[in-house]
Amino acid sequence: MVLNRTGKVFVGMRIDQTVESWQMPQGGIDPGEEQRQTALRELGEEIGTTKVEFLREHPHWLSYDLPPRLVGVAWEGRYRGQKLKWFAVRFVGTDADINLRTGHQEFSNWKWVDIDDLLGLIVPFKREIYTEVIAAFSDLAKPV
Fold first, then answer.
1. Which of 22, 24, 108, 115 could pair with 141 in a Cys bridge, judged by C-beta atoms 3.0 to 4.6 Å apart?
2. How far apart are CA 84 and CA 100, in angstroms?
3. Pairing of strands 81-91, 52-65
4. What b/e string do you get for 26-63 counting C-beta neighbours within 10 Å, with b at 16 or more?
């Protein structure tokens, strides 16, 4: 969860969807990679910047399954879902530092949203995980 100085949360609209599909940055751990390294690499790949400070790590791994219509389709059919380790980070750059046009572009658009509006933007099959992430990090969603 990327939080800006006003306590709003970064969301990106997935580039590979035909309907609006917003999510927070996320991604897979490469072999031998440390979890915080992964978080920074994924931020660089997905939003074009790593100008963040780590605030907190979620105490548990969280997982979700893809809905049946996406099993065998998403991720070239290699996975049925994901197991995620979540971090809350504070974005310390400026909006001009965010650049979605990376070599691994996943988002076509982005915005800062109130944490209370996050669940309404997220695809239904990820809402349970997002509920847990919001509960763990909501106290950080305030101006600094």
1. 115
2. 22
3. antiparallel
4. bbebeeeeeeeebbbbbbbbbbbbbbbeeeeebeeebe
Beta bridge partners, 111, equal: 11
Reduced to 3 states, what is the DSSP secondary structure of residue 94?
Answer: coil
End-to-end CA distance of the chain: 16
Q: What is the pLDDT along the chain (144 residues), one digit of tens a residue?
A: 999 999 999 999 999 877 788 999 998 899 999 999 999 999 999 999 999 999 999 999 999 887 766 556 655 555 567 789 999 999 999 999 999 999 989 999 999 999 999 999 998 889 999 999 999 999 999 999
Residue with tokens 């939080």: 3
C-alpha 54 chain-centroid distance: 14
Task: Please give the single-letter amino acid code of residue 90.
Answer: R
C-beta atoms surrounding 106 within 10 Å: 19
